[in-house]
């Protein structure tokens, strides 16, 4: 028994119960290199994509628009929406997704026939 | 609506992000070609391309987490390479060919006398197919149970949120997803100069479906897949020669002592090896397949004649027809999709897991990633320990390992202790008359923390689970050694190897 006592005092098991698994309170979501990546580096495109996309969401954690919760900074901090004095918007100069789409013959036909041409 | 009355030279707009575009210009062009109709299908929370181990596990997990999920698979059966033409059918053949071989050669000394033993290859293949179809149908059931929409077809990116699907039964559909997961897996790398026909020049897919036992079989590549298939056909009567470019079998991850022992045991079973040998050319025009080889460092050429040649030089990520170019996703020099630590590609809502991206091409690694990626989507946090992923070769005896091998530790200048225990000193192995192999454990010289475990022996693939757990928990070899293992079991060899690492084994 004494031998066991001595043994237990001398040895601290490396396996210990650490408690129930929990999600860490702070998780860094900025892109880092994948642990199994052989190159140990992320291509520039990861940062540049986020740079481009940051106006649409809190992708870029380091950006001033998304340092805290949604709505933390007022929309006015993005700058004026109105065109400056002497400047005017032209619809054709907007990104393509804001421009009118051309109707195809099939679509015109479908509307004119009340959808019947889709089943013809 | 707006008309430019000022000079065109005036800046177009005053907003600070005029040049920003949410996605590549080509996508806008595509988007413009697609008009939204009211009848369009609802957007899914997660669309998974690929119903292999990575894809189907993620689909089930996502269904369990309450996500609206669709899984696209073009094979017509779920389970991917692993279930249909890989791990599962090969294990069926390995198990049954081992039984056949054992009945032929290893019964008399066990007191069993058998009469005429005949091989019925057709029935053996049917047993394999029964196992496979049972498992794949099981996944379809699990899909239904977990509300996963199963779309049979080939998916291709139309834009960053839309996947166009060419349906197997004809027709097309599109599916939109808030998140998209690429899990398209891998395919066998072909050998330049040899056209794969899956009859004479085969990959692992053809090797599990040969209609007759080839008299002679040449295997290019002495890795795990090559050696498993070599074992099957050798047991069934083929004369098998394995050609390997490196100086050891089993691939670079296998410990050198284990590789040496495995080679010795496989040679004893009748396999022939040509190590440090490169294949110069192959010719399948005649009746058989001629493979010309020479020493890797240069030397005299030699021609190997065979009825069938198995090309098992590795696998490569499979992204053909996925439309990656439509969304500008990048692959590395080996065709792997580039991802970050949360499996995100550069487009954050498109993620990739399994063989199509980094890490070892193993089904259980893909499975771990499937759970983690769904957790990243739903909880923002996931877990895969790439340092504790086991590898198993299902030959006889089996080979299994986890963590680092001796040559890796030596190269990294890490001081370590080695403990080894042979199965010939294990009581259960003795009673089973199956005593070949050993357990080898490597631990840090200073802290005794386990760094690697390498097993060659009966049931090594099952036994390694204990090693993976030890590594995951950061156990010391003494922790394992002081844990009670049932007697008489093969796992006692594991405990004794741990004892030998920090002190001395009792029975050796």
In total, how many beta strands of chain A? 0
Number of helices of chain A: 3
What is the approximate shape of chain B?
globular
How many whole angstroms does the radius of gyration of chain A measure? 30 Å
Number of strands of chain B: 21
The structural class of chain B is alpha/beta
The N- and C-terminal alpha carbons of chain A lie at a distance of 93 Å
Topology:
The complex is a heterodimer of chains A (120) and B (508).
Chain A: H1 2-10, H2 44-53, H3 105-112
Chain B: H1 25-33, E1 44-49, H2 53-64, E2 69-73, H3 80-85, H4 87-105, H5 121-145, E3 148-157, E4 162-167, E5 172-182, E6 186-188, E7 201-202, H6 204-207, E8 216-220, H7 224-235, E9 239-243, H8 256-268, E10 272-274, E11 277-283, E12 289-295, E13 302-306, E14 308-311, E15 315-317, H9 324-327, E16 350-352, H10 363-378, E17 391-393, E18 398-403, H11 406-411, E19 416-422, H12 427-431, E20 438-444, E21 450-457, H13 460-473, H14 477-481, H15 491-502
Subcellular location (chain A): Mitochondrion
Pfam families (chain A): Kgd4-YMR31
InterPro entries (chain A): Kgd4/YMR-31
């Amino acid at each position: 028994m004494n031998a066991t006592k001595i043994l237990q005092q001398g040895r601290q098991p490396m396996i210990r119960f650490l408690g129930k698994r929990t999600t860490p309170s702070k998780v860094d979501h900025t892109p880092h290199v994948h642990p199994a990546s052989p190159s140990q580096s992320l291509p520039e495109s990861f940062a540049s994509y986020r740079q481009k996309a940051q106006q649409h969401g809190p992708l870029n954690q380091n950006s001033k628009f998304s340092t805290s919760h949604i709505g933390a900074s007022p929309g006015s901090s993005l700058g004026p929406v109105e065109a400056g004095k002497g400047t005017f918007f032209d619809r054709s100069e907007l990104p393509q997704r804001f421009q009118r789409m051309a109707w195809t013959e099939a679509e015109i036909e479908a509307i004119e026939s009340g959808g019947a041409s889709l089943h013809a | 609506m707006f008309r430019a009355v000022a000079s065109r030279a005036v800046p177009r707009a005053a907003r600070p992000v005029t040049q920003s575009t949410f996605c590549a210009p080509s996508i806008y062009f595509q988007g413009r070609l697609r008009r939204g109709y009211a009848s369009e299908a609802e957007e899914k929370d997660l669309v998974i391309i690929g119903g292999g181990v990575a894809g189907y596990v993620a689909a089930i997990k996502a269904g369990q987490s309450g996500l609206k999920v669709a899984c696209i698979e073009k094979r017509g059966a779920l389970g991917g390479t692993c279930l249909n033409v890989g791990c599962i059918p090969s294990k069926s053949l390995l198990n049954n060919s081992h039984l056949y071989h054992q009945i032929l050669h290893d019964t008399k000394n066990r007191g069993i006398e058998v009469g005429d033993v005949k091989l019925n290859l057709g029935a053996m293949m049917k047993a394999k197919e029964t196992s496979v179809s049972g498992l794949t149908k099981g996944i379809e059931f699990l899909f239904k149970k977990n509300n996963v929409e199963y779309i049979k077809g080939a998916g291709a990116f139309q834009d960053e949120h839309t996947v166009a699907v060419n349906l197997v039964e004809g027709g097309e559909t599109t599916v939109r997803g808030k998140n998209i997961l690429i899990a398209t897996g891998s395919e066998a790398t072909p050998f330049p100069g040899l056209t794969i026909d899956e009859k004479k020049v085969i990959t692992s897919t053809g090797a599990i479906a040969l209609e007759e036992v080839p008299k002679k079989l040449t295997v290019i590549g002495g890795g795990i897949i090559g050696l498993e298939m070599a074992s099957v056909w050798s047991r069934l009567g083929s004369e098998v020669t394995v050609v390997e470019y490196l100086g050891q079998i089993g691939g670079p991850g296998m410990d050198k002592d284990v590789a040496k022992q495995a080679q010795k045991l496989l040679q004893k079973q009748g396999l022939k090896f040509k190590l440090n040998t490169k294949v110069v050319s192959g010719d399948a025009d005649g009746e058989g397949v001629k493979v010309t080889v020479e020493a890797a460092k240069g030397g005299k050429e030699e021609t190997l004649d065979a009825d069938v040649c198995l090309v098992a030089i590795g696998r490569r990520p499979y992204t053909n027809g996925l439309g990656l170019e439509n969304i500008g996703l990048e692959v590395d020099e080996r065709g792997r999709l580039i991802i970050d630590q949360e499996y995100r590609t550069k487009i954050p809502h498109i993620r990739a897991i399994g063989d199509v991206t980094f890490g070892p091409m193993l089904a259980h690694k893909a499975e771990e990633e499937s759970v983690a990626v769904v957790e990243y989507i739903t909880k923002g946090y996931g877990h895969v320990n790439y340092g504790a992923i086991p590898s198993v070769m299902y030959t006889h005896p089996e080979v299994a390992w986890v963590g680092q091998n001796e040559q890796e530790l030596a190269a990294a200048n890490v001081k370590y202790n080695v403990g080894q225990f042979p199965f010939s000193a294990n009581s259960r192995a003795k009673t089973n008359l199956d005593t070949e192999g050993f357990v080898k454990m490597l631990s840090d010289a200073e802290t005794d923390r386990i760094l690697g475990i390498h097993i060659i022996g009966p049931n090594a693939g099952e036994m390694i689970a204990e090693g993976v757990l030890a590594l995951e928990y950061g156990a010391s070899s003494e922790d394992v050694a002081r844990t009670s293992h049932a007697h008489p079991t093969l796992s006692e060899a594991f405990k004794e190897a741990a004892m030998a690492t920090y002190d001395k084994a009792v029975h050796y």
